[in-house]
Amino acid sequence: MHQEDHVTKGRWTVATALLVIAVLMWLWWLWYIARALLSPAVPVTWGIFSAFLALILIFLIPALALFFPYRDRLSPYRFHISMWLVVTGLFWVFAPLYQYLSINTNRDLVLWYMIPYAWEVPVMGYVFFAPVYHRFRKIHEAMRDIRRGRPADVAVLRKKIVMLPVFSAAYFALIALVSYGPIGSYQFRVFGGAPWPEVIKNIVTGTAMGILSGTIIFFVLNRILAPYLATLAPTRDAVPFPIGKKLAMLSTTLVALAFLVFVPVAYRSAQTLLGDQVLRRLILELEECAADYRMEAGVPPCVGTDFGGGSRVFMVNAFGRIISPHPEGYRDIAEEDFEPEVLSAIADAGDEPTGVTSYRRDTRYLAFMRIENQQSRTPQFLIAVLPEATLRPLFRPFFVNSASMGITFGIVFSILIILLTRGIAGPVQSLTAAVREVSARRRPQEIRIGTGDELDTLAVEFNAMARQLRNYEQGLERKIAARTVELAEVNKKLGEKNEVLERVIQDVKKFDEELVRLNKAKSEFISMASHQLRTPLTAIKWYSNILSHEGMKTLTPIQRRSFHQMADANQRMIDLVNALLNVSRLEVGTLAIEPKRIALAPFLRHLVGEVAPLADSRGVRVSAHQLPALTLSIDERLSGEAVLNYLTNAIRYTPKGGHVFLDMAVKGKYIVISVTDTGYGIPDKDKKFIFGKFYRASNVANKEPHGTGLGLYIVKSVIELMGGTVGFTSEEGKGSSFWLALPRVGVKARAGTRGLNPTKV
Amino acid sequence: MKQILIVEDNPELREALEIAFTRAGYSIFKAADGEAGLRAAQKNNPDLILLDIVMPKMDGLTLMKELQRDLKTARIPIVFLTNLSDMETVAEVQSHGGHDFLVKSDWDIHDVVKLVAKKLGVKGGKNKTPARRRG
User: Fold this and answer.
1) What is the pLDDT confidence band of residue B28, given thresholds at 50, 70 and 90?
2) How far is CA A152 from CA A146, A217, A239, A747, in A?
3) Pairing state of beta strands A735-743 and A354-358?
4) CA gap A663, A601 in Å, rounded
5) Do B106 and A578 touch (CB under 8 A)?
6) Highest mean pLDDT range out of A252-256, A484-488, B60-64?
């Protein structure tokens, strides 16, 4: 592991060092170029060029090779590195090729032209191509995402498409400005001649090319991306690239094209025209000069003179030496003055003057002819040279003419484009607005555009669609209205049913109230009847009292017995009436409960005392066992009646010599009072009904005539009303034990109008 | 001799009471309805009034209130003899002074005589056990 780390670390260091040296070599190359630019003495040849290139590559290629394994580590910078390499490589391959194949055929000039590009293209190329490539990558990624159905940022995509051509246009313009501007002027200064028309021409050309290329890129991109952008739904937000803008771009491009076409063409044609004229003039002058010369000896008169426009005429011998004018300016016509083709043309010159244009270093017009020396009969050449540079001022009118023509054309075209835009974008906008209005239901009318083109067709189709929609809508509304009517009908029926239901409910309520009323009436009747019954019963009672008071001695035993039976029967009737009254009170629910906290032990003992006479008369012993000292909040009267009932029952249903016990105990949440006897007991079949109304157990009916059958029912109702429970255990023949349980928390008060009638012991 | 006023609309009961009280040695006045009872009370000023509640012309409770208005008759003790036994009546009676309230059918007539004797402090009749007050 460590070893590998060391190896990789060393590799990295070496690669970095080599890269640094390659960069230094490059800088040295630039410095050399600067020197060469400053001083023509510094040679710039293909050999030096190749040497520097080799130097750079010697260090660059190994560095790259060593960095290759680290491509992962370098991947963040991978893009920039590769971009730099690509740009520089392309430049070094294509630029010389282009220059070589262009009009300048001199190889050295190729190098000269390439010098300024040597630094500018790699840098500017990187500056331009890096972002462009980056954008293209992003666009490609977006396209891939859309293809795979993944979400892509549409706005960004659109923006990138728009920015690309802008970018490229700006770049080309900048290139033009830079290369044809300061550098260009410098370039031309080196070679002489006024640079500015050429410079401006080149700048304009460059910018125009930039705009043109930008527009082409834009439209091409749009075409390519149209299917992708179509997958994304359009929104109502601001249109990203309105028709107007597109047309404006198009028009700008056309104007630029116009410039591209007009300006150079105009320039070139002007050049050619002028050139032809110049050459023709030179030829004429030479002819005249030669004609004059034939008549005399010596040097033709025009030698050393100026035909005008800064021209020079001179004579050259067969070996290429200038013989006249006396050496100034040119010494020998050598290769650096004129191209080989021109020199050979001069050598083959005939008696008639011919014209040619030389482009070596500078554009120059030449007219030449062969002249035989009258004295030495040796061939001599008469050459008239006119540099184009001096003619440049003459270009101005042509330039201005063509420029103004171009500008006029541009303006006219722009106006036409604007009108066209209005013609298309305007109606489209109004159509859009109209559609919006119709969809917002603000205007139900139809849309009229009146442009007489496809937009009109669109408006017509839209109107048809709107009409259809309206019909559909109306149809729907009709259906809804119909349904609403149906619903109203159903509702009405429901309402009727509801009414019926309501009436039924009312009837039921009335029945209910009637029932309650009847119940109350029944109880009140019983109550009233009972009260009424009491009067005759009282009469019987009192008269039997009086009778017995008068004395029984005068009666026979049978008479006496009859009397007592009557009195007993009467008392039973009174008891029954009292019991009925109690029952009716319980059932109507008018029984009042008035709880009071009392001590239970004395209370129970008092009750035992009350039944003592009855017990004595029947020979039954009654006793209360150890009663705990408890207090309880109860209704004394009601509870007393209940216990009394238990006690009297126990006494009555126990034969002579029997025993009745009274107990009290706490059981959970209740206090239980129980009365146990050694009496007849209750048969099993009667046990269920023993607390029922008017029930008397079958085994005692004939033994004890006193019972009403209501006593236990009343006890149960009263105790349960107080929140307690009742119960019993019994065995026929052995005895019974009746108990009542009252809650320890006490008895709750109950409002009522009546109390219980006391039972007679 | 003590004077008792009997106000009772039922003739049989009225006669029975008269027999029993006369036997016990009281002087008896009778009235068959409330109005006659009021007149009799004002005229004769009895020592005690036996008063029924349900009566024609004027019921027992109204009669009691009338008697209380007159100073002469206000201090006469009243024993209500009735067959009504509801709490409202009892409450009404007790709010106007602690008069006795007896349910006729629950009392032997001689027990009534004993109660009256006790109330008047008269040594009349067998007075063994104090009559129980029920109701």
Assistant:
1) very high
2) 6, 22, 18, 82
3) unpaired
4) 10
5) yes
6) A484-488
β-partners of residue A728 are A738
In terms of average pLDDT, the best of A220-224, A548-552, B31-35 is B31-35
Cα of A592 to nearest chain B Cα, Å: 9
B106 CB near a chain A CB, below 8 Å?
yes
Q: What is the mean pLDDT of residues A520-527?
A: 78
**Confidence class for position A2, pLDDT limits 50, 70, 90:** low
Q: What is the pLDDT of residues A344-362, one digit of tens each?
A: 788 788 888 888 877 766 6
Nearest to B105 among A534, A543, A752 (CB): A534
Looking at the predicted complex, does its ipTM rise above 0.90? Answer: no
3 state SS for A230-292: HHCCCCCCCCCCCHHHHHHHHHHHHHHHHHHHHHHHHHHHHHHHHHHHHHHHHHHHHHHHHHH
Best interface-test mutation with A: which of B105, B110, B128, B132 has the largest number of A CBs within 10 A? B105
In this complex, which of A531, A536, A545 lies closest to B84 when CB atoms are compared? A531
Interchain proximity B105–A538, CB inside 8 Å: yes
From the number of C-beta atoms within 10 Å of its C-beta (0-12, 13-18, 19+), residue A245 rates as middle
* Maximum separation of any 2 CA atoms in chain B, in Å: 39
Residue of A nearest to B21 (CA): A546
Q: Which two tokens stand for residue B82?
A: 């009735």
Which tokens in the block code for residue A497? 């049913």
Of A535, A543, A758, the CB nearest to B134: A758
- Structural contact between residues A623 and A662, judged by C-beta atoms closer than 8 angstroms: yes
What sign for the dihedral angle of Cα A330, A332, A334, A336? negative
pLDDT tens, residue by residue, A727-740 = 999 998 889 999 99
In angstroms, what separates the C-alpha of A531 from chain B's closest C-alpha? 6
User: Region A434-439: what's the mean pLDDT?
Assistant: 76
- Are A754 and B13 in contact (CB < 8 Å)? no
Ramachandran sector of residue B45 (left: φ over 0; alpha: ψ -120 to 50; beta: rest): left
CB contact under 8 A, B105 and A758: no
Bridge partners of B80, per DSSP, are B51, B101
Query: Could you tell me the sign of the dihedral formed by the alpha carbons of A589, A594, A599, A601, in that order?
Result: negative
Cα separation of A251 and A182, whole Å? 30
> Is there a contact between B105 and A578 if contact means CB atoms under 8 Å apart?
yes
Of the candidates A531, A592, A760, the beta carbon closest to that of B83 is on A531
For residue B104, give the nearest of A534, A543, A546 by CB distance: A534
CB contact under 8 A, A535 and B103: no
CA B108 to chain A, closest CA, distance in angstroms equals 6
pLDDT of residue A148 exceeding 60: yes
